[in-house]
Amino acid sequence: MAVLDRIEQSQAEVLAAPAIVPARRGRRRARVRGRRPPRGQGWAVALSILPGLLLFLTFFAIPLVMLIVTSLADWSGFGFRYLGLENFSEMFRDDTFWTAAKNTLKFVAAGVFIQVPLGVLAGIILAQRVWGWKFFRAILFIPFVISGAAFALVFTSFYNPRYGLLDSALGVVGIGGQDWLAESGTARPAVMGTYVFILGLVIVLVMAEIAAIPEELYEAAEMDGASPLQRQLRITLPLLRNVIGTVVLISTLAYLAFFDVVYILTKGGPNDATLTLALYAYRAYINNAWGYASAVGVVIVVVGLALIVAIRRLFRIGERTL
Amino acid sequence: MRLLRGGESPRASLPFRALLALIALAAVAVALSACGSGGDSSGSGDKQGVVEITCTSCYGSPTDVLLKDHRILAERFNEKYRGRYHVKWIKDPKTNPSNERSQYYQRLALAGDLPDLFTGLPGDALTLGRTGKVMDFAPLLKDDPEWASSFYENAFAGITDDAGHSWGVPQARNAVGIYYNRAIFKQAGVSEFPRTWDEVRVACEKVKAIGKSCFAMDGLWTTLLMWANLIGTQPGGAEFLTRGVRTDDFSGFPEVVRATETLKDWHVEGFANRDAFSGEYQNAATAFITGQSAMIANGPWMVNGDFRSRGAIKGLYENVGYEPSPGWTADGRGMVVSVNDIFLSAATDKRKQEAVLAFVKFAEEQAQSFTQITVNGTYPAVRYEPTAAESKKLEPLALDLTLRSGDMPFTYPTVFDNAPASLSQVFVNLWPAYVRGDFDTQEFLSKFGSDLQSKTG
Prior knowledge:
The structure holds 2 protein chains of 2 kinds. Chain A has 15 helices and 2 strands. Chain A is mainly α. Chain A has helices at 2-15, 42-70, 86-93, 95-127, 133-145, 148-158, 165-172, 184-193, 200-211, 215-223, 228-239, 241-256, 260-265, 277-286, 290-315, and strands at 73-75, 80-82. Chain B is α/β, with parallel strands linked by helices. Chain B has helices spanning 14-35, 70-80, 99-111, 122-131, 138-143, 145-149, 182-188, 197-209, 221-232, 237-242, 254-268, 281-289, 302-307, 316-319, 350-363, 366-376, 388-393, 396-404, 415-418, 423-435, 441-453, and strands spanning 51-55, 85-89, 118-120, 169-181, 213-215, 293-298, 320-323, 334-344, 410-412. The longest helix of chain B has 22 residues, at 14-35. At the A-B interface, helix 2 and helix 14 of A face helix 1, helix 3 and helix 20 of B.
């Protein structure tokens, strides 16, 4: 009886959508007290920390400080003139910057609203152990381990209007000859098409999360007459909140700094139709406006931090659901 | 091995942990010191009294066809000047001309790490010249009029600033013409290579009628060569390609407007290959070497690099002709003459500067020129007169064009020789949009110029 009671209680909690367990707000975290190293061992502790600290300073802290400092200057390697916020004001007045910002948001949106839902759907389906699920999981994961640059090179051939696979296929039905990457109207969707179907990471994370859901919840729901679809919608999906939030976060940050694929496929063209913020910064860099490029970098970092906070709050990432 | 005493923790003891910490610290130190290592060298040590100069372009690039002979050059120089000068070649990760290489040089200049000898584009020479980190060769040329007169006229034009400083010494001067496929012309009923742009249009209509594209273009290098031909064969065109490309608005140059609209029309008429906007040279090259396009503008290096490659159709080389550009009139033909491989030096020590001077003079000797042509397919910036024996060994298409380059009514540089480093980026971005009708010609040329000068063009 005790087990059934527990399942019923669990079922009641699950069906009380949207949140399984209310967020624990206002609770004070237990204070973690720092322990002093034993007498005479301080130097050993300091020495142990030093390599990590050096790496942290060399590869993170110092570059970040340099990024911020140089963003306030007219700098191209030679000479350094303090400008205050002039780089930023110039950037915000530049129409090309806003074009790049809008394009970047569109690439992020494609990742969040196409790639992630498709990945979650595929993950849920494969988690049902459907026929050939291991094979399909492997096939869908392979594109994820291929580097973006290599993938982009494959797609330059795929989209080629003279000998590309896409054009050849469309030519069979008489609509070939389209130069997908050179047309302002098709270039952006063509670039999105190179990554929105890379579902491997989302699938693997979703499947791992589903495997951790107690089977009793499904059994209880089944006993209660819930259909398979209802079980997925009312049990699986709410319990995937954490992992969905995580992949949304990863996807957002990845496409916020989207560079390699666009650079290889279109270099931001035609007429800035695929220009991203990272590519915009790169253009400033090759034009010897290194300070300006740093200012763009600062904007990307700030927007990234804001999105991290927003997404973590929206999905309550880190809060346990069971 | 020390046994643990009663009550002693099995965790690592203090001296052991300290040792671990020291090892970790040493590992980090080794890793960081590796970042600053100088790279490879020829292995020759610094013998007493021998002046050693470092050279990054002398390593022998496996990928850049233009640098293949530099290793041979350095070895011969070391042999000739044994006991006096020695070139030490350093592996350089960025030997291919590109925006990235230009930036790389600037970073090296910033760090004071530029080698004693390296090669760059004219734009690199002017940019680095402004930093004061590279040698000015103008006084040396003035001191040696015989050496100065050995170069072709205008060889130093692209690397000499308004104050008269010459920030390098040109090594290559290439006559760049237009290759054409005689078999396609014959099949289309075109009896000879067109002499005027009007004749080009007539020929292209015939070529199109047999299902081939008239021009192989890539939306960048070969397209801009054709643009240079259309501009350069007009009065004032060479001046635009030398100095005008550094202005911020091209719409005020009538010769540029005329050339741009002509080039656009060819695309709109379907005279170019379908993937003519990719920005990838290989797309243009494959269109030509596989017999799908009748013409391509390119330099003499294409013979060894592409016509004899495995991808080329059988018998291509025998069917290829190489001609100067057509003109707007029959007697107004022209040719791109590109001085694009510049020796630069950051040597500051007087003895090293002497060694650098000896090296660049050695590189311009006739015997070295012959090696350069046969190995790279590029021609020297000094006047080269092959012996009868040498002539037999030289690629006839390129030799013929080079010999004719001195008699052309119009000669002019490529757009790349003098434009800002962002040219590729800007052109690839704007050109497809213009041809597709997103801008009119005035708007395109205005934006083209301003984007080249802007921070984020």
